From TrEMBL:
<dbReference type="InterPro" id="IPR000210">
    <property type="entry name" value="BTB/POZ_dom"/>
</dbReference>
<protein>
    <recommendedName>
        <fullName>BTB domain-containing protein</fullName>
    </recommendedName>
</protein>
<feature type="region of interest" description="Disordered">
    <location>
        <begin position="1"/>
        <end position="31"/>
    </location>
</feature>
<feature type="domain" description="BTB">
    <location>
        <begin position="41"/>
        <end position="111"/>
    </location>
</feature>
<feature type="compositionally biased region" description="Basic and acidic residues">
    <location>
        <begin position="8"/>
        <end position="17"/>
    </location>
</feature>
<dbReference type="Pfam" id="PF00651">
    <property type="entry name" value="BTB"/>
</dbReference>
<dbReference type="InterPro" id="IPR011333">
    <property type="entry name" value="SKP1/BTB/POZ_sf"/>
</dbReference>
Amino acid sequence: MPYDEDDCHPAKKPRLDQDEDENDSQSASCPSRSEYWFKTGDVVLQAENTQFRVHREILSRHSRVFTDTFGMPQSKEGEGSCSERLVDGQPLVDLDDPVHEIDYMLSILYDTLRMHDWTKPMTVIRISTLLRLGKKYEIDFFVQEALQRLCFDHPTTLAAWESVSAHGFYVRIGPVDNLAKDMVTIINLANEHSIPSILPAAYLHLCMHFTLVN
């Protein structure tokens, strides 16, 4: 009885793992919604793979950059501009900032009383974030808060230095996990953001630390 060669080789079942990989890839590329997703929001910010539906009026109230951004024609596209892409009927604004920094920024604008106690020390990482976002988006009180903390703990007079030193290395900066690393970060911040007045005290802090360690 004649036979077809294909009859001797049953068709292979399709590989499900390939389909699963494609589904996983699609899921990974689908943006997630953050805690800051308000039904009344009239703009959607996206940082990395996370979206925030917030209010133009809130952002514009604090940031001159967002004020200018929302005043641009809808047809203009690019970093930080309102494009013609819509999410839930609202314009999408792509940001190139780390998602945790945008989340931190919005936590201040929306949840200051619930999540932040400005009387307590602030970590160097948070201070760095305030400086970077404050200057990028022209949010004045972000920059002022960061500078006040850096300048307080790096005084320019002997009397102020003795007052701060009586409490240890820092008063308004902390908690500190890696003292030497934070000291170097502060020196880098001073150079990057043009804050030369804190450099003498910052270098002195660093020298004192290594003297004590050794």
